[in-house]
Amino acid sequence: MQFKPERWIDPNCTDVKEASQPFSLGLRACVGRNFAFVEMSSILAKVLYTYDLELVDQNLDWENDSHCHIMWWKAPVHVVFRPRLSKGEQ
């Protein structure tokens, strides 16, 4: 018998978002879940309002460079953050 992990790899694998439940489920789920989501949304909104984002590699094909084996391996995404200029500074 030989170890062949590829026998369990589905070539048509799709990302299953329900596979990870970081806040747990049910009656005893994390009480701070909603606060965490509001906090993440606020931080993301502030970053997008404050900075212009640009991919370092303009030819990046993120979907094709990501792989699904036992767990998702996602290709790195390198981004440059440049402070936004106000209308008077442009």
TrEMBL record:
Signal sequence bounds: none
One annotated GO molecular function: monooxygenase activity
Alphabetically ordered keywords of this record: Heme, Iron, Metal-binding, Monooxygenase, Oxidoreductase
Names of required cofactors: heme
Keyword Iron in annotation: yes
Key word Heme present: yes
Highest taxon of source: Eukaryota
Pfam families (UniProt xref): p450
PROSITE patterns reported for this sequence: CYTOCHROME_P450
Similarity-based family: Belongs to the cytochrome P450 family.
Name this polypeptide is given: Cytochrome P450
Protein's organism: Petromyces alliaceus
